[in-house]
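A reminder from the course coordinator: this example appears on the midterm review sheet, so study it carefully.

Given structure:
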């Protein structure tokens, strides 16, 4: 009975983690360039059930010379949280009409200069800073191949290969980073990633006057959230039932009549 209690409790814990992950995805459904998180769980290895204090060796497999005790069957022992990982699937492009808004279509990240070093983002909701430099929504300078991008007074145009011009005059080229192994990227908050491996050049298509939407499917996420709630409730009922059975075993079965 205690095994059943632990198994159900492990199910409750992983559903809590799953619920938190889905809720965070839903909270960022309108965040430009947001990449959803997915939770991975792993079943705890099953255990063989055998009869103890039984010297017979005629039980069904896997009774062997190494373990001759009669085999009854197998029993699951629960589930455990493995890891959260980021899904970098492309989000839909949303037109804004703002000339400083940029969206990437394909693999790659904008590069930002922050007080903590270089950070990477898919959020292209940019604006002009006080010194007319192109900055992120948090105020971090957007980097070109030659450093921070500073704009003049002319009309801004951005080509699909990342060339910035004003009134037809080239002023900068976007620095776009790529990471073949995206597992080296770690979320840091404010829609930023920190890299655990050197960046490489990338060449996605750049779209001006648009941003990439979050890759969160609201309907699918809501269905998954309901499933997680129900799975939590089912495991909770199992815990309650196990507790009641244990109470009866202690108070009733062992009572002298």
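Designed residues:
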């Amino acid at each position: 009975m205690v095994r059943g209690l632990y198994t159900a409790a492990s199910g409750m814990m992983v559903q809590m983690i799953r619920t938190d992950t889905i809720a965070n995805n839903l909270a960022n459904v309108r965040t430009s360039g947001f990449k959803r998180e997915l939770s991975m769980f792993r079943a705890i290895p099953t255990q063989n059930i055998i009869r103890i204090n039984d010297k017979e060796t005629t039980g069904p497999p896997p009774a062997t010379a190494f373990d001759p005790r009669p085999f009854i069957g197998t029993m699951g022992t629960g589930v455990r949280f493995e890891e959260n990982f980021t899904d970098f699937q492309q989000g839909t492009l949303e037109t804004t009409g703002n000339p400083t808004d940029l969206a990437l279509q394909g693999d790659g990240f904008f590069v930002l200069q922050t007080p903590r070093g270089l950070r990477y983002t898919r959020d292209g909701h940019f604006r002009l800073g006080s010194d007319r430099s192109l900055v992120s929504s948090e105020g971090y300078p957007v980097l070109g191949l030659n450093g921070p991008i500073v704009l003049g007074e002319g009309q801004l145009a951005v080509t699909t290969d990342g060339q910035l011009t004003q009134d037809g005059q080239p002023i900068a080229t976007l620095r776009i980073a790529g990471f073949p192994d995206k597992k080296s990227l770690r979320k840091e908050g404010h829609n930023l990633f920190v890299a655990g491996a050197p960046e490489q050049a990338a060449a996605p298509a750049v779209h001006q006057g648009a941003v990439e939407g979050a890759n969160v499917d609201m309907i699918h996420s809501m269905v998954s959230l309901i499933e997680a709630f129900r799975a939590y409730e089912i495991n909770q009922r199992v815990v309650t039932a196990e507790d009641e059975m244990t109470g009866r075993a202690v108070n009733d079965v062992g009572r002298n009549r």
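The chain has two helices and 21 strands. The first strand starts at residue 37 and ends at 43.
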